[in-house]
Amino acid sequence: MPGESQGHAPLRVGVVGVGYFGRFHAAKYAALEGCELIGVADIDAERAAAAADAYGGQPFTDLGALLDRVDAVSVATPTSTHYDVARACMERGIHVLVEKPMTSTVEQADDLIELAARNGLVLQVGHQERFFVAQLGLEHLAKTPSEIYCQRLGPFTGRSVDCSVVTDLMIHDIDLAQSLVRGPVTGVIGLGTPSVTNHPDEADVTLYYANGCNVRLVASRASEGRRRTARIVHAEGEIEIDFLARTCTHSSLGTIEPRMPERKGGLNGRHVLINDNLGQELAAFLDSVIEGGSPMVTGEDGRRALETALLIEANLNPVLDAASAR
Fold it and tell me: Name one GO molecular function term (predicted).
């Protein structure tokens, strides 16, 4: 059970939704120390069975049957179902890691945050890049940034077709920017267009913050190549991050190495390689459940990123020079 110390039974975990990304959650839980993957749930019985065969545990098509057996779950269902699934879990006293975006509306996010607080549950939101950024110590290097420019481009995968590229991909960089820039957004200029779905699949956005920082975000899920980069301009220089190459350079300090070769977290001494964002994220989730602490990415963090993402969507003009996102 949550809160038990080292030497007690492993934390019982499950995964709800084992499509493309949910399978990664199941694989990581199966490999992590200090937890036992009890089962996976999916509305597709064959998909649930295939994931259980690959990673262990039992397959379920009935969510309630899985929740009877676990202490904590990852929710990796389609975005439009995040709220209903996460709420059902927390109403049963289950700790939840919900993939981004945490919900479809801010009101739904507020409800989950309140429910978690009322029931004393951990609610963590799946913004993975935070874990790599934290290990670089950017919160100390990039004090009062004046400009941030992020690109997150990739080919169409057929996933997340129930939401726009803003809440699918750009939200990672929204969360990164908001972890470094405190204060409200005072203005938004955005261009976006659908190209492979009925939602905007490419977007080029500038956010203006009250403290004077400007943040430009470019995202595409219809690009020919893959690119995930960030440039942060601040008083002491510029920081360049390549999330795919796992590199970071500072104009004053040169190449910056992550501070740890691996993570040794929690009461169960889990070891996770530094280039494994998802493993880091799930290990941190387990730590929060066992130790009773606040997760690195809280429900409030997820809500703030969602609120900004929805603000962007509301201000997207339906025109985009596709060449700018490639």
Answer: nucleotide binding
Give 258: exposed, middle or buried? Use CB within 10 Å, 0-12, 13-18, 19+.
Answer: middle
Q: Are 110 and 303 in contact (CB under 8 A)?
A: yes
Cross-strand partners of 249: 240, 255
Domain count, the chain: 2
Q: Are residues 146 and 209 in the same domain?
A: yes
- Tens of pLDDT along 264-308? 433 233 334 456 889 999 999 999 999 999 999 999 999 999 999
- 189 with 312, same domain: the answer is yes
Calpha distance 57→18 (Å, rounded): 13
- Distance (Å, rounded) from C-alpha 141 to C-alpha 318? 37
Does the residue 177 lie in any domain? yes
Angle (nearest 5°) at CA 186 between 320 and 108: 85
* Distance in angstroms (rounded) separating the CA atoms of residues 71 and 135: 28
Answer whether 319's CB lies under 8 Å from 191's CB.
yes
